[in-house]
Amino acid sequence: MTALKARCNKLFFVFASISVFFSTVLFIDPALAEQETSIDEIVVWGTKTSNRFNPVSRLNQEDIVSINVATTEDIVKYEPGVVIRRRFIGDSNGVIGMRGSNMFQTSRSMVFADGVPLHYLLQSRWNGAPRWTMVSASEIAEVEVLYGPYSAEYSGNSMGGVISIETAIPQDREIHFDTSYFSQNFSDYGFEDDVSGYKSFFSIGDKIGDTSLYFSVNKLENESQPQSFYYATPSQSSVANNASGVISDRDDRGNDRLYFGDTGVVDTETNNYKFKLGHEIGQWSTLLNIAYEDRASISNQANSYLRDEEGKIVYGGKFKYKGEVLSARESRLSAKYLERRSLSSGLRLRNEISDGVEFEANINQFKVLKDQTRASATHILSDKHSAAGQLTDYGDTGWNTAEAKLRFTDLDIDGLSIVAGFRHETFELNLDVFNSDDYNAGTKTRYRSRSGGKTRINAIFAQAEWNINDRLNAGFGLRYEDFKSSEGYYDNDDINTAAFELAKLTKEGANKASPKFSLGYRINDSWDVRYALAKAYRFPIVEELFSQYEAYNNISIANPGLKPEDGVHQNVTIERALTNGYFRINVFSETIGNVIESQSTIIDGGTSLRTFIPIDEIKTNGAELIVNASDFGVNNFDLRFNVTYTDAEITKNAANPKIEGNTYPRIPNWRGNVLATYHVNSSWDVGASLQYSSDSFGRSDNTDYQNGVYGAQDRYTRIGLKSTYRISNEIALGLGVDNLTNEIAYVAHPWPGRTIYASFAYDF
Prior knowledge:
The chain is mainly β. It is 5% helix and 56% strand. The protein is globular and about 85 Å long.
């Protein structure tokens, strides 16, 4: 079967390459180049932001035709200064970083779909990824990316930026089906195999009078490459049997390591069900948005490289290799089973109250219905395997948000518009870890750890934009926020008592005001320049305040006294209008104090001990060069190009002065993206893509200098190809490849190897 898969992958690769080659030849055919492309009109019920405070990048359906799209993350991953660490298609930990906020500072970037929050402001690092699966890539009509916290309409969680997604609303009866197959080859350490998957999407929509109805189902199944590789540590024991099969390499700090196993293939399945109901009553428009996610993953195929003297697989324990006694923790190769079900509901209201006065309200509730991970204590094929294990379970977890605002555009002062409103947010996280006598059955035998709590933020904001004359415009904004944390608790258990004791925390609070300012000048019909200045506060989230637990290989310690991050942000934009696009330079600077950082150390032969400790100050300076244009140089050739330079430095840290002057982790100096599309004719598009990133550090002490190993933050250059052919208005076929050169690179965990795509779409 593996050999057959490999042959099929090679055939797909050859077919895609030939398709792109012939399309490139046709690129110079004048007759074909004169044919125009066509794209159906897409209707959304959202409005593009009108404020000039933030640098903005926009995407529509025509902009993404050169992207091999499997999930929502694919659509925005080529945008300036954006990095999404999606380790494989279907990864639940697709964390996002923007500009000077790295991919583990997930609470500094916001993502909305039709006004509904997808950002997960309950946890951070890998657990804090936006809930991308709440919106399917196939339903997206347009995307707007705003950089920095320059608008008073958004909280300090926009320090990195905001991604606003709008989905299509049916105006007639529409039935759509699409499906994609993808397969990648991965080979490193002791693993070499092909892994594959598919995505299928179906939607039906209609408009009956003033009512629009929409229902969709999105199903994704995929296998991942191994996500972790494990090394053995020296043991004090003098009794052990000889073993072979370990792989000698180094870790990210350059230390010699002997790797004994990996997590193996992870099988993931995600089902998303979406219902949208839109209705218009006079000047009122309403949109009800309900999304249900059912996700499961199985990781029970961990690979052990160890072999005893008889060649039998050994799954851990003490062993002797080249005269040295080593210990391989058996829990590293344990089996894990995840079940996650979530429900999101949102309501958007809009009304043009009178000429020049618009009202908008957004209400949302997100609820974790079930989120449970069951884990064994050993490999399921180990002689020591039993029903004993652990269970991690989320209790009452989720959030509620409500926002209302008024926009005034017809005031007594010419060119002046004002938006003002309020926002209310509450968040709750409860996390329990149990020892289990039967992990398969989900038995909760005894608490191992417990933690949780609530946060609440109330905000009022106002923002004015004033076109002073034809050349000069200014903006002024202010956001005031009141923050409270409450009902915080974590375990304080006395093992000598039958009960499981908790430490309960008192309420904490803070309130902050964040002013915003912007000044723009139009030099002539082609050139514009703008300066933006903002103060922003990012309040701690529940996990940062209260997370305290002990599970296999991980210990977290709470820090309920955290204060908000305190940032001053500046941006200068110089833009030149092109015939069908723009050329733009952004120069930005951020100085952020009290940076809440998840800091960890390794203890007891591999256990990670973590807590959230502030770094006193980090300064980030950077610049972006962006070219977005259609018919760039040649008719029917579209280009989206950007390159970003970022220098992030730890400038103050009294608790550990040794790291002052170090580079802040996970922010590479250079990032760049290219999306190039040639519309061969109205039916055929071909394109190429490139993602580049220089290497970076993963630790604030900057000791992880080793590249090309598990745990590193590697440089990478990923090349993609895509060709789409529309047989008719109803049927489209696509072939593509990502990571054409099959480069193996790590962002702590491995990026995917070369991935082949084949897609089919049908519109009834």
